[in-house]
Each structure stands twice: as C-alpha cells, then as structure tokens.
Design goal:
mainly alpha, 17 helices, 422 residues, 8 strands, 9% strand
Length: 422
C-alpha cells in the first residue's frame, strides 16, 4: 500500500491512496501457508485511487509510513479515513474468501468499488441491448439504425474515459450530475447539435429505465430531466430545382437510375431504405386502375399508403419489367452514402447550389409536392407513415407561396362578408 499527496488545480488539495495487491497478497499468502482452506490466490496488481479533500497545503501534511504525518486535526481526519478504507478492503476480501473458491485482486477492488457480481454496469447493459437488437434487424428495424445505436454507445464509452477514466460504470453511480456532464460533453467536446444530443441522451435514458424497472437501482436519475432539441430547418427542393433534376442529361445509366429513384421518392415520400426494399408486391392496383403503394416503414414498422402520382407512375412503368432479384422495383444499392455521392453529380450537372441527399426527397414530397399544393397536414402525415403529426411538422414547411395563395383566397371570402363604411 502506498500513499501520496497530489495538489489539485483548485484551491483545495487532494490526498490519493493507492491500495495495491501486495497488501492482499501477503494476507492471502499467510492464510494459504497456515493451511487455510481457501483456494489459490492470483498475484496481480490492481490500484484503487481514493480522493480525500483537504484545505491545507499538501507540503505541510507530509507523508510517513503510508499515513499523513503530524498530530493536527487534518492529519488525524485523513488517517482515520484511510484506516476505514483499509478495513473495508479487508472485509471485502474476507467476504469473497468465504464465498468463492479463489480470490483475485481485481475481485477485491471491484467489490470495494461496489462493482461486485450482483452489480449491473451501464455499457454492459448497452451491449446486451445491442446484441438483442441485432438479432431483430432482418425482421424489423433497419441495419442503419443498429449502426446509429452503436455510434451512440461509442460516444457514451468515450465520455466515461474522458470524464471518469473508466471503461464502464455501475448504474448505482449514475445521478443527475452524470447526465448533465454527458450533455455538456456532447455539446462542447463533440460539438454535436441539439437534435443529435437529444437522440444520444434518449438511449442513455432507456438504459437507466431498464435498470430502474429491473430493480438494479432504486431511483431513476432521469426523473424530471429533459433535453429539448432545437431542430434545424429541413432543406428541400423547390419546384424549379426538382424540375431541373428531372430534365438534366446524365452521362451514364447508373447515375440515371439513382436520379430516377430520387425523383420517385420526391413524388411518393419514400425514404431511401423503403425504396431500396420496395417490391412489385407492395404496389397494388385499385378498381380505377390507379397504383397504390401499401407497405410498412422499414424504420418504425408503421403502415403507410400513398397513391402514385403521374410522374411516379411513369418512373415505375420504366422499371416494372426488369425482373430483378427479390422482385425489387429499383436496381439501387442499399448503401445510403453511395446514393448521396451519386446525387452530387446530378446536382452539379443540374446547376444546383447544394448537394441533395436521398432523405431530402422525402422533405421535398412533404413540402413542395403536397403541403404547398394544399394537401392537409394530416393527410401528409399518413402518407409519410408518421406516428405523430409533430414529426410531420418538422418535415413539412409552409412556403411563402402557400401563405400568399391562402391569404388571397381568404381576402376574396372576406370581401363578400365585410364592407368598410364609406
């Protein structure tokens, strides 16, 4: 056991005691040598650092025989704390000897830190959640969602290393301060936007709720805590920009396929994952001979239905006789980034001043194609497959042209109702 004093950056100073396994090895060796019935002890080294705050200069306290020297009240307080810690480690060692066939220094350290076999850890639980989620990927959620969850897990692990210098942490150690520090870390160190921070905190909230529901912790540290995201304005293509994408001449067949898939999404509201898995069986014909897409969203499993508009119908007729593997409609790749790279070439040739993404086609459907043309927000929400209309309000935006047309119609109605006295 060694004892050192280290000055803090603040006005206070901290005494740090490192309990090393030789202390435990000697005790185990004595018991084994005296014919103890305990099993073998693994000679390993594991340090436990404990911080004790003192308002005196660390030079005046000194260090002698693994204790603070002197007879001051400050020295007596520190030595008393250190003795209690040493006694607690001895008790944890004895408890493990009584229970297990062998004892390691790591076991004793974990027991002292409250990380025994009956203690659940945050990242351990997160990993178990991801394992179960991955088994359901082919049945329900998209694989891209799994990758997004893995990214959130890596950010949480990086935060533990950055703030606490640990690989994992018990649920019992989580409190409101931990959550607030995590939010600050994502904002300042990682530089994430509020919407991304909110998504990362939601997964942490799910882990703590799981621990609370299973009785691993008595109080949910997220109780009363909220992160309200400020969503950035969603980009969409105007009518003229969408027309430019439709009219542009492209250099090769593959880029043309990706352009057609983008335009199809802009007139149906499908996401990239939904159009990539779209099959001919998902497209139905009604009594009038009109095509309808009736399917479930890859991301949420929510059913949606949307009638093919004339432009979407023309594009569908262009590909319906290809007889692709899996009865797919479009011969496009599953990878989202690959599609977006192809759309950059389309944008450059079409004269756009920005790089569109596949998801931007979905925003274009919600804004330019439907809402700006007078389609009610509730209808747009159903066609997009949203569970809540508030999500649709993020996607769809009221354009100035729509406001102008609505106000012009309102003016005509009011002119026939109200007359200003002459």
């Amino acid at each position: 056991m060694t004892f050192t004093f280290n000055p803090s950056k603040s006005s206070s100073y901290y005494a740090t005691q490192h309990f090393q396994s030789p202390f435990l090895c000697e005790k185990a060796s004595r018991e084994i040598g005296s014919g103890s019935h305990y099993g073998p002890y693994h000679h390993q080294r594991h340090d436990v650092a404990v911080q004790l705050q003192t308002h005196r200069s660390f030079h005046s306290l000194g260090c002698q025989a693994n204790k603070a020297s002197g007879k001051s009240l400050e020295s007596q307080r520190i030595n008393e704390k250190l003795e209690n810690i040493k006694t607690n480690i001895g008790k944890q060692y004895q408890r493990l000897c009584d229970r297990d066939s062998y004892v390691t220094a790591e076991k004793v350290r974990n027991a002292f830190l409250g990380m025994g076999d009956d203690c659940r850890l945050l990242l351990q639980t997160f990993d178990e959640y991801l394992t179960g989620f991955l088994k359901r990927v082919d049945k329900e959620p998209a694989y891209s969602t799994y990758e997004d969850y893995c990214l959130r897990r890596r950010r949480l692990a990086a935060f533990l290393e950055y703030e606490y210098h640990v690989k994992d942490i018990p649920f019992k150690e989580l409190n409101r301060d931990f959550i607030e520090k995590f939010v600050v870390y994502l904002s300042t160190v990682k530089g994430l936007a509020s919407g991304t921070i909110s998504a990362g905190v939601k997964k942490l909230r799910l882990m703590t709720y799981t621990a609370y529901k299973n009785g691993w912790i008595l109080v949910d540290p997220f109780a009363g805590f909220h992160v309200r995201p400020k969503y950035a304005e969603r980009r969409y293509l105007s009518a003229s920009e969408l027309q430019a994408v439709m009219d542009v001449e492209l250099p090769n067949y593959r880029t043309g396929i990706n352009r057609d898939a983008f335009v199809f999404c802009a007139f149906t509201g499908l996401s990239h994952s939904d159009v990539a898995k779209l099959t001919h069986a998902d497209i139905h014909t009604d009594d009038n001979g009109d095509y309808w897409i009736i399917d479930k969203r890859q991301k949420t499993g929510t059913q949606f239905r949307v009638k093919l508009l004339p432009i979407a119908e023309i594009i569908y007729d262009r590909y319906k006789n290809l007889h692709l593997e899996g009865n797919k409609v479009f011969p496009i790749k599953r990878y989202y980034k690959t599609m977006n790279m192809s759309l950059r070439h389309v944008a450059r040739l079409a004269g756009l001043s920005f790089n569109p993404t596949m998801h931007m086609a979905r925003h274009t459907f919600a804004t330019t194609v439907t809402l700006a043309q007078g389609v009610p927000l509730e209808t747009v929400s159903k066609m997009l497959g949203h569970k809540r209309i508030t999500t649709t309000q993020i996607y769809a935006q009221i354009t100035n042209d729509k406001i102008g047309r609505d106000m012009a119609a309102l003016s005509e109605k009011l002119d026939s109702i109200f007359k200003v006295a002459q």
